[in-house]
Amino acid sequence: MLQKRRLKKERSKYRIKTLLILLICLSLLIVITEYLYLNFSFGRTTFISPIGKVSKSQVASLENALDKKNISFASANVNSDGSFTVELRDGGELILSSKKDLENQLSSLQLILSRLTIEGKKLKKLDFRYDNPVVSF
Q1: Closest CA to 110 of 71, 63, 137
Q2: C-alpha span between 137 and 125 (Å, rounded)
Q3: Is the pLDDT of residue 93 over 80?
Q4: Which secondary structure element, helix H or strand E, spans residue 94, and what is its range?
Q5: Which of 7, 55, 89, 107 has the greatest number of beta carbons closer than 10 A?
Q6: Do 77 and 107 meet the contact criterion of CB atoms below 8 Å apart?
Q7: This prediction's pTM
Q8: Cα-flanking dihedrals φ and ψ of residue 131, to 5°?
Q9: 29-71: per-residue pLDDT in tens?
Q10: Mean pLDDT score across all residues of the chain
Q11: Domain extents in the chain
């Protein structure tokens, strides 16, 4: 008799757990379905990455800073490691670190470019990601 009562209690607990799991799965399915429905009904068929928005704003601020410092450039991009690659109009390439102060890097860039112009050397690549800038001719 005791065993039958225990079995009934265990079965009822098992049924409650099963019902709860079923409800959770069903609610997740409804949420995902609604999310996809809203995305498709408003014309967005892909997921939007917040990284893309941040990168575009970072590139725009970099381009503004380059313009303020009167540094002529052809293009600016964000690399996968978060650093910036800038193609200069005279053919040189810059790699700027996003972990360091941008203003300090651009001030150093101006100084280096002016010295290279005075010495008559042409810059091939300049990398600011390290402690000291790495210059390639």
Answers
A1: 71
A2: 7
A3: yes
A4: strand 93-96
A5: 55
A6: no
A7: 0.57
A8: -60, -45
A9: 998 888 887 777 665 555 555 554 546 788 888 899 999 999 8
A10: 84
A11: 1-48, 50-136
